[in-house]
Structure formats: C-alpha cells, structure tokens
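Forwarding these from the shared drive since the link keeps breaking.
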Amino acid sequence: MNNPEIFEKTYNQYWKKLNAFSYTMTQDKDLAQNIVQDVFVDLWERKEELNINAIEPFLFRAVKNQVFKHYQNNRFDQTILEEKFEDYVIDNFSTIDPEIMDLLYSLLDKLPEKRKEVLLMYKFQDMTIDQIADELGISKQTVKNQISSAVKQLREGLKDLAWLAPFIIFNHKF
C-alpha cells in the first residue's frame, strides 16, 4: 500500500461500499463519511507498518471498529447497531452473495412451511401483501403476521451469524 496509485485505486474501488456500510450502521451521512475518511487516512499513515493480505475484510473491519469506537465514546447502546445489521441482511436478502445465502437458507429452513412460503413470496418475488393473500387464499392480516413472525425468527438466528457481516456487506452490489 506504499504506492500512491494503488492507494488511490483502493480508495476509489471501496469508498462507495464502505460509505454505504458505515451509513447503514450510523444512519448519519456526515458521520458515515467521516468514519470512512478516517479509515483511509489511518491506512495511509500506517502504510509502512501494515501487512494486509485481504484488503476488503480489513477495510470493513476498520470501518466497523471505528463506528463501534465512535458510539462507545458517546455511550451508545451497541444493540441498536446489531439491529441495523440484522435489518440490512433481511432487507437485502435477495442480493447477498450466493455462498452466504447457503447459510441464510439454513435459517429459512427452520421456519414453519407456511411462514417460509409467505416470506419468500414477499422478499424474493417482490409480491405485495394483497397479492400473497390472494394467491394463498388467506387474509392480509395473516400475511402480515407471518412476515412479522418470520422476520423475528430470522433476526434471532442472525445474531448467531453476526461474524458474517464483512462478507455480506462487501459482497453486496451497491
């Protein structure tokens, strides 16, 4: 990373992804940009001493650590950040890397059959609640309840998969 051209290429290649991830965690545009900028400044300042084998996980981990550090210094409850991560995975389920999807499918398989069917129709087939209710011959309220219950169950399961955050975020196509 001693070469300014390589650094600039890395910056240009990852800025958008890192900023999007940082924003997902902070919900603050300026703070997200500042965190990513700090990560790149630190990377440049420590270029002589760092030996980085895989730049993507390194950058992601650095951004995540900076976000946690910021909120830790400001006495922020980290459970909010964990919930944002879980929401991100659930909301972007259909665009996540196929290898990670295999692990997420194992969570889906644990859902009751009807609940899984409703969630898949809603998230993967982009069907509306009305369309799902009509197709399955159930009430709209039942569809809403099934989606809510499925999301709750997935959220619980995702707590065990939090270590996957770097892979999920960095493999997401922004």
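-- next protein --
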Amino acid sequence: MLMRTLAATLAVAFVPQLAASQAASAAAAAQPAAPVANPVSAAFRADEARVGKNLVAAAEQMPADHYDFKPTPAQMSFADIVVHLSEGNDFLCGKIAGTAAPSRTKVEAKAGKDALVARLKETFAFCDQALASVDDSKLGEQMQLFGPRPYTRAQAMFITTGDWADHYSQFAIYMRMNNQLPPTAKKQS
C-alpha cells in the first residue's frame, strides 16, 4: 500500500511537469527553422571543421614510431598520408575559395611527427580562413583542378569531402592495425 501511495504521489508531482516539458519541446520543434543562408557552403565549412578536427586528432594520436607504417609496400605510409592531406588542403581549399594557396616550404614524410602534425594544422587553419568567405553564389563556376577537364566549385567541394573521408578511413585502419583506437571510435565523455 505504501508503494502505491508513493507511486501515485510521484506521478501527481512529476507527470504534469513532464507533460509541460514535452509540450514545450513539441511546440519548439513545430516552429519552422529559419532557412540557412548559403546551405551548401555552410555545410561544407561545418564538414571541414569536423573532419579537420578528427584528422588532426588521429595524426596527434598515432605514435611517432608508427608514422612509417603502411599495411603493404604498395600503400602510402601514415606520414605520406599526412603530407598528401596537407598539400591537398592548400590546393583544394585555395581553389574552392578562389584564392592562392600559401607558399610553404615542402615538408617531407621523413620530417617526423611533430613537423607533419604542425603542417597539417597550418593547412586546416588556411582552409578555415579561405573558406570563410565562400558562398553558394558561385557553385556552378568552372575551374581547373586536375588536368584539362573543368570542374564546378560544387564538384571541388564534393571531391574534397570525399578525399578527407577517404584519408580518415585510412588513418582509422592504420591506427587499428597498430592497436590504436581512432578518435571517432572513442566514447564521448
């Protein structure tokens, strides 16, 4: 009997608050969200921020003595991927933004983890700065990326996000093969 009374008291005390909270949440959800200005460019910048954070975290986490690791002789080493990403960031973000990529001294894969991570961070900082002014008004504009075939700015954005995803998956595989848990596989605290 005491349990029933306690349950009834709790129900009377908390059910109205819970119902009011759910009603407020439903009302807020029912309000149409304001349209996002430049949704494609905004989504691309958000992806760059998220993926950049994960790629840099993976590069920081991989032990320095594993930077020369590659699963087979035909594949790039972990260090080679960092170099490729860094060069690609400058090139692709510059092209997408319509601005010249920074002139940097070349960093080789054998430069070591600290130099490679620092360069990767620099190139994502360039992407942040260069992409800040990109909007959707020029998505159809043609540009040269690779060879004589023209690409639209939108295609360049898709190529870039695909490249980042491809190389993060490489990082994740290389890390797991070296008993490291990739950043996105870790439980969020």
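The radius of gyration is 24 Å. Residues 83 and 107 are 7 Å apart (CA to CA).

- D.
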